[in-house]
Design the sequence.
């Protein structure tokens, strides 16, 4: 049977529904139900009144709106809220089971102190005062203290930054830019470094360098609608990726590429623009002069080294395809170019992201409708406080931190523990986690002071990074947190008493109320609710603002219409031509069994957070998604290496070795091996404690992770 693109669109649009109607997961759920009958954590709602509540998911930054069916005020079923401006009915597999997490077996129900003795981790319960006293002893004036905040832009984030700003050595840390790398690179090139987003709804073409646009990336509800059959204008979507992924299936066309050669292709596209005068001269010059600190003339010459003919030999893409892609982008403007892997793949390297940012500049897409949108920066106290500036975790020098605090929030993407560990000064450095679960990065913490679980407290949802306007939504609590959980804001206030800051103030929910007051005074933007769009200036009181946002409304700030000017200062740190990149690819000599190792994963399921045990059972038994430890390769790669499907194979990199089960997949480019990452095997009770996580093999000496060279052999 031949599948058309429309069929695939239907398939994607119906995936959530499919999960509901196909008997396979339900058979497994049936098994799960039997399995869980003896599980002490299972909620047992008493027969009682059925009610419906609105909230929003906080398991990643997308903030999808939820509708909860509650019995006796306990949520028993979550669905996507069709009317919520965030998600518009979409909810992923992790979000569907978000209400299970409050009952998770790995739930931490009070402060814990952990230590390792003879290789065995021991946990003991401590009082909150004792836990805070231990942390206070580590936050003296000479100590470097960092907080890793995976969902910046909340009132709690502002408190973190204020406290860190009051310390002699405080660092506010954010996640590596796995999903938003292109915007981050572009932001560094624009005067004033404004917030940026994508105006996909008005784009005519989207060129994605491996971004999983239709597999959980950004705001998945928005992306699903983008290619929905009800849209009058669907952009041309080109997916450039070494495997025929779900996004490649839904794109207008798929261009397979040799892994790790995306930078060469981007530079070659710039060369075609130059040769064929396909871009405005001013835009092209702006783009090319930012590529290195050597200036326009030198960079123009350097770009000429990336002719389509030469790029073809390196990337595996025919030269005429490179030329026709550049021509197509010139015709289909506004066009957007973006890159970056999925939640498990890690951030794309900075040189490639800068070249993709330059392509957007060359095509005149920045600040143009249908291109890259400029967003108003947050003007509430969240942003304006005298606070520590943000630093990306991977940019922090190694061996810097004496005390690292891990906020409980998640962005849905993976951070391998070795990336965090290398930032700790020595064995005496302390890690504190506010996670409600003993999983992911929290497993490595010395002290755990648990926060409420998802859907147990009022939380802010800043607009997702890909949105074209700034804004704010709320996630209202559906459950009451158990005794023993602690508001992180109150912990920071107590710590600040010990460090001389003295930030006495309200709880996290009190801070959110204060932010509502600031919004009300701002009198800017609109609040979109399922029923109406209300200009904020027309609302009579702050209570009305709070009521509308609590009922599933979203505050959207006014759009910005400024001209942009480009700067070169930040860009000096990244020279895309450094080391003769094309030559280094051509000269690369690999031994016969060396192969490109690529991790991949799904947002919110591969991340460092928690998944419902029932969901993880569905995953393990349905094979809806491949699980660790699996290695996926092209059959021709198997033949070349003398391997067969079903073999146990050893994957080896500079970081060590791991064993995986070999599966063949004809849609993967030869010479590559894909390994799925997550869900966290220890968190789903499937761990072999001695096994090396496959992701650990992908960590490279530069302090980041992603595609790496490996050997593959029969175990
Ligand atoms: S995990 Fe993320 S994508 Fe999934 S429902 Fe929650 S907010 Fe939406």
Sequence:
């Amino acid at each position: 049977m031949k599948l058309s693109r429309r069929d695939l669109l239907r398939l994607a649009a119906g995936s959530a529904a499919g999960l509901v109607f196909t008997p396979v997961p339900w058979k497994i759920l049936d098994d799960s139900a039997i399995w869980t009958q003896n599980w002490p954590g299972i909620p047992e709602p008493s027969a009682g009144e059925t009610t419906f509540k609105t909230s929003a998911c906080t398991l990643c930054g997308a903030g999808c709106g939820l509708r909860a069916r509650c019995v006796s005020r306990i949520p028993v079923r979550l669905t996507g809220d069709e009317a919520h401006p965030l998600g518009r009915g979409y909810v992923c597999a992790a979000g569907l089971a978000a209400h299970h997490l409050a009952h998770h077996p790995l739930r931490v129900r009070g402060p814990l102190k952990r230590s390792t003795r003879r290789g065995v981790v021991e946990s003991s319960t401590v009082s909150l005062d004792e836990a805070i006293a231990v942390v206070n002893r580590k936050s003296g004036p000479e100590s470097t203290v960092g907080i890793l905040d995976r969902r910046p832009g909340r009132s709690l984030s502002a408190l973190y930054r204020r406290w860190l700003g009051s310390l002699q050595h405080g660092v506010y840390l954010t996640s590596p830019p796995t999903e938003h790398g292109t915007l981050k690179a572009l932001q560094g090139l624009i005067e004033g470094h404004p917030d940026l987003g994508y105006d996909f709804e008005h784009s005519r073409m989207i060129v994605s360098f491996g971004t999983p646009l239709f597999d959980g990336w950004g705001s998945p509800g928005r992306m699903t609608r983008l290619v929905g059959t009800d849209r009058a204008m669907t952009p041309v979507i080109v997916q450039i990726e070494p495997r025929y992924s779900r996004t490649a299936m839904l794109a207008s066309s798929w261009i397979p590429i040799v892994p790790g050669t995306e930078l060469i292709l981007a530079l070659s596209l710039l060369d075609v623009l130059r040769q064929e005068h396909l871009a405005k001269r001013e835009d092209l010059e702006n783009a090319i002069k930012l590529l290195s600190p050597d200036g326009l003339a030198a960079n123009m010459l350097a770009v000429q080294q990336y002719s389509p003919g030469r790029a073809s030999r390196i990337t595996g893409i025919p030269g005429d395809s490179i030329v026709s892609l550049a021509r197509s982008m010139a015709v289909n403007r506004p066009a957007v170019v973006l890159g970056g892997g999925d939640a498990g793949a890690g951030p794309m390297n900075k040189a490639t992201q800068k070249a993709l940012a330059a392509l957007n500049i060359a095509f005149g897409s920045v600040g143009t409708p249908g291109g890259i949108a400029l967003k108003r920066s947050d003007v509430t106290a969240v942003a304006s406080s005298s606070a520590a500036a943000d630093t990306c975790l991977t940019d922090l020098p190694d061996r810097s931190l004496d005390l690292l605090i891990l906020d409980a929030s998640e962005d849905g993407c993976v951070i391998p523990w070795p990336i965090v560990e290398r930032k700790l000064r020595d064995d005496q450095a302390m890690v504190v986690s506010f996670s409600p679960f003993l999983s992911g990065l929290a497993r490595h913490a010395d002290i755990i002071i648990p926060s409420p679980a998802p859907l147990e407290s009022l939380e802010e949802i800043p607009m997702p990074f890909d949105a074209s306007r700034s804004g704010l939504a709320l996630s209202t609590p559906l459950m009451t947190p158990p005794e023993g959980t602690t508001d992180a804001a109150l912990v920071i206030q107590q710590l600040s008493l010990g460090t001389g800051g003295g930030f006495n103030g309200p709880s996290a929910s009190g801070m959110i109320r204060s932010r509502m007051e600031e919004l009300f005074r701002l009198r800017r933007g609109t609040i979109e609710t399922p029923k109406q769009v209300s200009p904020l200036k027309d609302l009579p009181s702050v209570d009305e603002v709070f009521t509308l946002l609590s009922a599933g409304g979203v505050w959207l700030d006014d759009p910005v219409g400024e001209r942009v000017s480009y700067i070169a200062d930040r860009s000096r740190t990244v020279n895309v031509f450094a080391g003769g990149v094309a030559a280094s690819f051509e000269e690369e000599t690999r031994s016969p069994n060396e192969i490109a190792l690529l991790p991949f994963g799904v947002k919110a399921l591969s991340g460092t957070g928690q998944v419902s045990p029932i969901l993880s059972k569905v995953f393990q038994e349905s094979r809806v998604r491949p699980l660790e430890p699996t290695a996926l390769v092209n059959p021709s790669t198997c033949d070349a290496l003398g391997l067969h499907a079903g073999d146990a194979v050893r994957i080896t990199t500079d970081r060590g070795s791991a064993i995986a089960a070999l599966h063949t997949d004809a849609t993967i480019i030869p010479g590559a091996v894909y390994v799925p990452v997550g869900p966290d095997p220890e968190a789903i009770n499937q761990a072999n404690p001695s096994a090396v996580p496959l992701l650990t093999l992908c960590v490279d000496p530069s302090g980041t992770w992603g595609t790496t060279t490996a050997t593959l052999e029969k175990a």
